[in-house]
Amino acid sequence: MAEEEIILMKGNEAIAHAAIRCGADGYFGYPITPQSEILETLTELKPWETTGMTVLQAESEVAAINMVYGGAACGKKVMTSSSSPGVSLKQEGISYLAGAELPALIVNVMRGGPGLGTIQPSQADYFQTVKGGGHGDYKLIALAPASVQEMVDFVSLGFDLAFKYRNPAIILADGVIGQMMEKVILSQQKPRRTNEEVIAQCPWATTGKTKDRKPNIITSLELQPERMEVNNLRFQAKYRVIEENEVRFEEINCQDADYLIVAFGSMARIGQKAIEIAQEEGIKVGILR
C-alpha cells in the first residue's frame, strides 16, 4: 500500500495520482490537450494491477460520460476528464447524471474557445460550469483549484461531496494549473470500497447484490408533469443546502481594502502578486477567490 509521499509533478499528473490514492473505482476518458496527461498517467501507473481501479480510453467523449453514468448508477466512485470542447460533448450525459442524482467527478482543464479555439489556457468555461452546462435547470458542485496541491485535494473532496449530495461534482481547472509543476503531498492509499460497503452506503444504487429489496431504478425520466415539478423543486432545495454548507473561499488582505479582485485558478495566483505590487504603491487592494 502506497504511503504518504512528497513529489514534484504537473497538475494533470496530480489528478491521476489522487484518483488512485482516494480509492476511485474507475476512470473513463478521451485524450484532448491540455488534459491528456491525466489519462496517460493513469495508464502508466496501471492501477488495475494494484487497487483494481478500471482505466479505459473510450471511443469518444460521449461514450466516456455514459460509461461514467453506468458506473455511478452502481454506486461506484467513477470519474472522467476533458478540456473545454470535450466537456461540451459530455453535457447531455452530465445533465442525465444530475437528473438521476448520481455522484460522479468530472475534471475540466480549460482551454480557449469558442469552437475548437486554441490549446492555450483559458477560464472561459466559468459560466457554463456554474450554471450547470447542459439542458435543464440543474447545478454542479464546482471546485476551482489554484495550485497543484489543490488539484490533489479536490479529487477526494469532489468525490466526498458528490456522494454526500448525490450530485455530479466538477473540478474547474485552467490549463495553467494543469500543466504547472509544483511540489505536492500525496496522502496514503485508501482502499476501494467493498461491494458490502457500497450496498450499505448507497442503498439507491443498482448493485444487483442486495436480497429482499425492491429493485432500484436509476432514471432521469419523469413523464408526469406534477412529479417532474416536485423533482425540480427538490433539486433546487438541495442546491440551496449545498450553497449554505459547502461554499469555500479565501480572503487575502480584504480587511481595509478599497479595491477587491475576485478571481479563481491561476488568475487568483497572479492577483496575489498584483496586490503585493499595489500595496507597495500605497493602493489598498484585496483578493477574494
UniProtKB/TrEMBL annotation:
<keyword id="KW-0560">Oxidoreductase</keyword>
<dbReference type="InterPro" id="IPR052368">
    <property type="entry name" value="2-oxoacid_oxidoreductase"/>
</dbReference>
<feature type="domain" description="Pyruvate flavodoxin/ferredoxin oxidoreductase pyrimidine binding">
    <location>
        <begin position="17"/>
        <end position="201"/>
    </location>
</feature>
<dbReference type="GO" id="GO:0047553">
    <property type="term" value="F:2-oxoglutarate synthase activity"/>
</dbReference>
<dbReference type="InterPro" id="IPR029061">
    <property type="entry name" value="THDP-binding"/>
</dbReference>
<dbReference type="Pfam" id="PF01855">
    <property type="entry name" value="POR_N"/>
</dbReference>
<dbReference type="InterPro" id="IPR002880">
    <property type="entry name" value="Pyrv_Fd/Flavodoxin_OxRdtase_N"/>
</dbReference>
<dbReference type="InterPro" id="IPR009014">
    <property type="entry name" value="Transketo_C/PFOR_II"/>
</dbReference>
<protein>
    <submittedName>
        <fullName>2-oxoglutarate oxidoreductase subunit KorA</fullName>
        <ecNumber>1.2.7.3</ecNumber>
    </submittedName>
</protein>
